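Bench notes, afternoon.
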Amino acid sequence: MISLFRVLSWSPLWLLHSIGWALGWLVFALSLTYRRRFLDNLRQAGLSFGQALAAVGQSGAMVMELPRLWLGRPVAIRWDGEQCVEEALAAGRGIVFLTPHLGSFEITAQAYAARYGQRQPVTVLFRPSRQPSLRSLVASARNRPGLMTAPTTMAGVKQLIKALREGQSVGLLPDQVPPQGLGVWAPFFGREAYTMTLSARLARQTGAVVLLVWGERLSWGRGYCMHVRPLGEALSDDAVAAATVVNRAMEQIIAGCPQQYLWGYARYKQPRVEGA
């Protein structure tokens, strides 16, 4: 597997994305469970299949671009809304970046680290791979100058809090279903979804600025565009109210580009029991 990743990392993005599109459609055609969840999530969001048709291929492109992003040459990045980052860094309060399962969420932290990491590094929360062969590869690929990782454990949360109190940045995927006891039920596209409370808790405890960021995958392998926006709403001390604000922000971003959202993600699943 690692050898294959190293070979693919030399490939141009347009080729990896093209292979990924074919892979995405193949999975969509062959997996009834995946296809049904994809279409059910679309309907829940009030969208037709035609409005998000490209998301089928984009999901495969997301997988196939990983070898290049982890091990290959740097890719082209452009920014939209970088003044939000500049202002937050100047304030010295730390930044909580919230990224939905939209576009290339792998590239967002890399792009920040490449541009701003020397001023203030970013720490991203991630769950280590369950496959031993990939665990070391992923860990080494994600740890780079200006970019660190924190595991989804209590020690990892403490690492995030420490980074924010030092004026640094952290990155989270708030539409990821957390383990039982680490979230609340809040509406997401009109249906109750188990939603993490960590993002709001980090912002309240540290006084950090909350920014929304997502990496748009540009056509024909031209790279990515980082879109940055302020959250726009205050986060309440009430966990459900705060989670509702975060979910609403995610909905707005996704509605702006449904063609690159990971509609096949099991957003409405029951939370797992940690250790089970």
